[in-house]
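Q: What structure does this chain adopt?
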Amino acid sequence: MTPTAYFTTSVPVEIIVAAGYKPVDLNNRFISDHNPLSLVENAESLGFPGSCCAWIKGLYSVILKLDYEKKRTKEDVFIAVTEGDCSNAKVLEEIVSVKTKLKTFLFGYPASRSTHKVNSEMKRLASFLGTTLERSEQIRKDMKPLREKLAQLDRLSYLYPGLITGFENHSWLVSSSDMNGDPEMFQKELDVFLNEVETRKKNWNCPPKVKKIGFLGVPPIIPVHEFIQEKGGVVIFNEIQREFSMTGNHSSLAKQYAQYTYPYSARFRFKKALNEVKKRKIDGIVHYVQSFCHRQIEDMILRDMITEENLNIPVLTIEGDKPLGSIDGRLSTRIEAFLETI
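A:
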């Protein structure tokens, strides 16, 4: 049985694959569970406070569930990203190391974005997993065609609004954080989807008075994309999901992860995001923030930068807490009213 490397947010997946591990982003396992809310409630029953982010609680319960179902091997490892992501991940790593038999590793993205420091951190991870950066660089090159196909999917999303739904774009790009545990199979499934999209294109007509939406912020814990689509908006840009896909043209693994915006400063992130907003001629921005997360405060920076760049574009900031499977009445009213103003 192939050992698995579980992680709390995107890490250099090429290193995991190079070491012979199956990559699994615990966020994807959590949110795709048949009852993610029960995972949150389970963690709370074990002592996690209600004011702790639901994602952290969900990740912990996923690990326990895999233990209970005996779906782990003794070689499996747990990688917690502490610098550049959630500070709670450090405590989560401590709890996991005590409560399970998983070997754990702390990974940190350097705030300076120095390629030298990124390279050093990746070398630590490679050593922990039993591989080398040289082998990982080869995996990066092998993955290039897959990443180019993800870039193609994203381009089609804004060149042909509505051809690919906002949720489809979100789903494929967010899954690229771990390639569903199998990069080869993921690429085959993506090929099938892109062929289907080519068929759709033959009958595509630009929706009348299309409202092109940019979705900024972390992937949502509630079904925002589906609701926006239902109310006449088309999400043609998913900011963080696109970052997971690593679709840029990079000459090395260190440069690729130094340009990955999610773990670095908000201004660095939003500068790149707003460039895409302008390029795609987006009509309105929905900025999603997660309850009890430091990224809520970043909304102030986003709005300042929009003013600095003289972008005359409306912004709606929305907040999600637990995975309830639907949008409550208050939030649905806010989104509807926002779309009506565009």
